[in-house]
């Protein structure tokens, strides 16, 4: 029965891996980082997402994505990720 236990853990770990994976984005931000500060780029991304109807409370560049906190209908905030090149939500 002992050889089965490591196999069971390996299968369980493989099944959980997609849930732990970070979102993958292109990292292609529309503003030049040499010309604009990180705060200016974050404010720009916040305004862009608000203009398409996303109720963003704050935004930042994170791992090639735009990481935002969105106000939900119940008043709580939820962290979401968006692709900077097309503003598509990344799951």
Condensed summary:
The protein is of the alpha+beta class and 91 residues long.
Keywords:
91 residues, alpha+beta, four-stranded antiparallel beta sheet, 2 helices, 4 strands, globular
Q: Summarize the biggest pleated sheet.
A: 4 strands, antiparallel
Q: What characteristic shape results from the CA principal axes? A: globular
Number of helices: 2
Q: How many distinct beta strands?
A: 4
Q: What's the oligomerization state?
A: single chain
Strand order of the largest sheet: 1-2-3-4
Give the strand content.
Answer: 15-25%
Question: What string gives the helices and strands in order?
Answer: HHEEEE
Provide the low-confidence segments as ranges: none
Radius of gyration: 18 Å
Description:
The chain is of the alpha+beta class and 91 residues long. It has 2 helices and 4 strands; from the N terminus they run H-H-E-E-E-E. Strands 1-2-3-4 form a 4-stranded antiparallel beta sheet. A hairpin with a 6-residue loop joins strand 3 and strand 4. The chain is globular and about 60 Å long.
Element layout with pairings:
Blueprint: H1 4-20, H2 38-51, E1 56-62, E2 65-71, E3 77-82, E4 89-90
Antiparallel strand pairs: 1-2, 2-3, 3-4
């Amino acid at each position: 029965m002992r050889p089965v236990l490591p196999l069971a853990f390996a299968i369980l770990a493989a099944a959980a891996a997609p849930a732990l994976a970070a979102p993958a984005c292109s990292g292609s931000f529309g503003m030049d980082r040499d010309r604009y500060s990180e705060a200016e780029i974050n404010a720009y991304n916040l305004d862009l997402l608000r203009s398409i109807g996303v109720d963003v409370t704050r935004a930042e560049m994170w791992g090639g994505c735009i990481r935002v906190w969105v106000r939900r209908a119940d008043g709580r905030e939820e962290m979401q990720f968006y692709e900077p090149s097309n503003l598509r939500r990344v799951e």
